[in-house]
Amino acid sequence: MFIHFFFWLMGFFFLFHIPLCRSKDNYNKNYPKISVIIPARNEENALPNLLASLNKRAQAEDEIIVVDDSSEDNTRQIALENGATVVDSEPLPKGWMGKNWACYQGANQATGDIFIFLDADTIIEGNGLKKMVDSFIYSEAIISIQPYHRVRRLYEELSAFFNIILMAAVGSFTILGNKIKPIGLFGPAMVLKREKYITSGGHSKVRGEILEDLAFGAKEKKKGTRIFCYGGKGTISFRMYPNGLKELITGWSKGFAEGAKSTSIPVLLMIIAWITGAIGTVRNLIQAGVISDISLTTLWGLLYIAYAIQIYWMLYRIGNFKPYTALLFPIPLLFFIIIFAYSFIIIFIRKNVSWKGRTIRVAGKESNAHTSSDNYNHSN
Questions:
Q1: CA triple 214-215-219, angle to 5 deg
Q2: CA nearest neighbour of 105 among 227, 218, 115
């Protein structure tokens, strides 16, 4: 049992502190011009929420650019109705991923001094835009923020372990703080200087990457660029995969195994140990109950409760997951293991994934993408 207790402690090490973006009172509101760049493909339901939250908080001279990535719904019209500048995407070139190409085109049209890339399904909360810009200016680095996960339906609770592992794997939130550098950036929200984006090559240098956020951050880190990651609570939020269980499975499986291989070995080993401890605790609790050993059942039951409390402590800072999700953690844990295995198969064996109407080839360094109506998965 001691080894399982030790594995449980690993959870406090790899997800100890999640820093949040903060407003700086000594900064005035007259920032350099900001360009918010939003790649959007079939986002007619999500986009109005983001644009409304931005229009309330952006300065008059700021610009909001929506890159319509060959949408088949009313994305373009909705963007125009909400005052955004619309860039119609050119055909996807060979070797490019759709989001990367959209971001690159939007950046080429942007005129601001600060670039903020946002996913279309995000929402700025309160004075979150100021918090993001203040944190960016204060850090003098490229920053990214993982949005706070808004959960509304029961099946969305199954994302619990994906959120925990995603946050832990980046390596920014360990007990050692900034002594461990993140492996990359979060894709839903990224802030950097225009000059940095242009001189670095921007998304062209990660054109064929499925997980462009990790790749972009990793390349910049190798060049000595400072990068910081934040949690989004109170700053920016999103609702992931609102269109049902199928979308949730497709979304998490399209790149999770690919991301795992980028995780630093020490953090990866801690995550594996922690998951192993959780599985072992459940197994031993069941076995103790079957043989009716009161002492063992009590001891393993206490460790099970300890895991449940720890998991809820993690989830509380990441999203509005329900307490029963932590209490019944074997269910989302089993779902995580199954989807992770499926992700491994489609990434490393089948070597292609389907997302938003594109079949993405992941064989080799140069990946290709083409539209496929049979695999189309709406994200509206």
A1: 120
A2: 115
158/206 Cα distance (integer angstroms): 30
CA distances, 262 to each of 184, 211, 257, 359, 372 (Å):
9, 10, 9, 23, 29
Q: Put the strands of the sheet holding 34-40 in their side by side order.
A: 85-88, 63-68, 34-40, 114-118, 189-193, 142-146, 227-231
Helices 330-344 and 265-290: crossing angle in degrees, nearest 10, is 130
Residues in the chain: 380
Using a CB cutoff of 8 Å and minimum separation of 24, what contacts does 340-349 make? 340/256, 340/257, 340/260, 342/249, 342/253, 343/252, 343/253, 343/254, 343/255, 343/256, 343/257, 343/258, 344/257, 346/253, 346/254, 347/255, 347/257, 347/258, 348/257
Structure tokens given for 70? 């060959």
Residue type at 150? R
The answer to whether 95 and 362 have CB atoms below 8 angstroms apart is: no
pTM of structure: 0.87
Q: What is the DSSP string of 7-60?
A: HHHHHHHHTS---B----TTS-S-PSPEEEEEEESS-TTTHHHHHHHHHTTS-T
β-bridge mates for residue 354, sequence order: 359
Q: Which domains does the chain have, with CATH numbers?
A: 2-14+263-375 (no CATH), 34-243 (3.90.550.10)
- Among candidate residues 134, 115, 119, 113, the one with its CA nearest the CA of residue 39: 119
Which residue, chain included where needed, has tokens 């499975």?
A: 249
What residues contact 257, with CB distance under 8 A and at least 6 apart? Answer: 340, 343, 344, 347, 348
Sequence-distant (≥ 6) Cβ neighbours of residue 296 within 8 angstroms: 284, 288
d(CA 354, CA 255): 11
Contact between 271 and 14 (Cβ < 8 Å): yes
Contact of 63 with 35, CB cutoff 8 Å: yes
Distance from C-alpha of 191 to C-alpha of 372, rounded to nearest angstrom: 32
Cα–Cα–Cα angle for 164, 237, 258, nearest 5°?
Answer: 45
Report which DSSP code applies to 241.
-
Ranges of residues in the chain whose predicted pLDDT is under 50: 363-380
Q: Rounded to whole angstroms, what are the CA distances from 228 to 166, 172, 199, 358, 380?
A: 15, 8, 19, 31, 30
pLDDT digits (tens, 9 = 90+) for 144-183: 999 999 999 999 999 999 999 999 999 999 998 877 889 8
Amino acid at 277: G
